[in-house]
Amino acid sequence: MESKNKPPMSFCILDRHPTQRSCNTNESEFQSLADRRVRMRSPMMGFSKSGETFQSSATALFTRLRRPRTLVSLFLLVLVGYLFVVSSNRHVIDNNQLGLTESIQPEIEDVGPESEPKRILYWTGYYDRPDMIFGFGQQPFIKAGCKVTNCVATADRNLLDQSDAIIFHAGQFNLSDLPSKRLGHQRYIFYLFETLPLARDSAIYFSNVVDNFFNWTMTHRRDSDIYCAEPYGKIKRKASSPWIEQLPPTLAPGERPIAPAKLMEAVRNHPRLAKKDKLLAWFCSNQKTHGRREDYIRQLGKYMPVDIYGNCGNLTCLPKNSDRCNNLLDEYKFYMSAENSLCADYVSEKFYRALKTDIVPVVYGGADYAAYAPPHSYIHVADFASPKDLAEYLLLLDKNEALYLKYFEWKKDYDVLRGPLDGWCDLCEKLNDPQEPAKIYESMAKWWYDDVPCYPGDSFIQTVLNHDS
Questions:
Q1: Is the peptide bond before 68 cis (omega within 30 degrees of 0)?
Q2: What is the pTM of this model?
Q3: Which pLDDT tens digit goes with each residue over 30-76?
Q4: 192: helix, coil or strand?
Q5: Rounded to an integer, what distance in angstroms lies between the CA atom of residue 277 and that of residue 407?
Q6: In this structure, how many other beta carbons lie within 10 angstroms of the beta carbon of residue 323?
Q7: Closest Cα to residue 281, out of 330, 215, 228, 319?
Q8: What DSSP string describes 200-260?
Q9: Which of 349, 373, 370, 354 has its CA nearest to residue 235?
Q10: How many CB atoms sit inside 10 A of residue 89's CB?
Q11: Whole-angstrom Cα distance, residue 412 to residue 405?
Q12: Phi, psi angle pair for 336, to nearest 5°
């Protein structure tokens, strides 16, 4: 220890600016203090910026490194590092030799922040179904197999401010029961599955009161913002059905052509013909319609037998649309799938019920059926000049069973689905699309009636009757 009455020599040594020293020291004292400082500080803690201290520290470090124990430790450290590098390189080479040219690290997708749930509020139900038949919550979207499933359906009006879409079923639209306020981002949706050809001037939801009210449409019309055929059906190509790129298609290894004897006798004892001993059936509930289907079928009945069930005929099948009535169709070769109006894209459950069974539908409607069903799966009355011509064709098919069976070949490639839920999936997807443009319908009546008007049944019936006379 230094004496307290001696000058504080250490302050001169530790000064960060040695050129500013003003104290006098002798050489032996300076060297003693420097040696003591080197011993007190480890080389690994850094060196002083003074030249003298750096030199002393370097000397001490070199002396320590010359010790055998330190050299052995450094040698082991270098050896471990070398083995690690060699092992890593060998691992990469082995992967390349196995054909694993890509990184073995799992690919990390940048999924971004979790999107906020989109709430869909059923302001009305669908007739007696408050859940719109689809259901409540998020589960219906998951069950439907939607690509986007973060939507939640509810009928709780207390959640109006938290809802992104509000659905109004046109059949239950009430001006005295509308939301009290409306947020800018919300979509008001017009929901309808009837044609209503005579309601343009009577239905409140087509009046000018609702001009600029609805943002989106969700109907059976294919020009809707959300095309939805849930109440009716759709036809979907089977996953197992091959897309034929050439005719004839090539055969798979080991596959053989169909034996000629089987082809020539395919019609005999065909299971689809086992119970069919009747011609044409029609199930009718409304005796007078805008499309005047009843007049057409009455005229058709002059040339061939037509069995009419329900209010329009003298035959009954109860309960309606039951399995019992569907099984009854097995006795017939043809089913009259006649819509009550000739309006765009109106293809109701009548058509899909017939396609689901082994019966050929004869369609009477205003839709482009070629867009809905495969070729040779139905017979359209519009393809014949008159009911008489149609009757002659149906009688021909009745007598020629091979031609009749051609109307079922499409079934090997397609399935008929009842109650498809694609529309709800599309709705959820659109609500999650930030690029979806703003939209509003200035006039629902113009879009529903004027842009694609229905064809009056009077005009059609008059045309075909003129050909019959």
A1: no
A2: 0.71
A3: 344 444 444 444 444 444 444 555 455 555 555 555 566 665 566 66
A4: strand
A5: 17
A6: 8
A7: 330
A8: TTT-GGGSGGGTTT-SEEEESSTTSSEE--TTT-EEEE-TT-----SSSPPPPTT--PPPH
A9: 373
A10: 10
A11: 13
A12: -85, 100
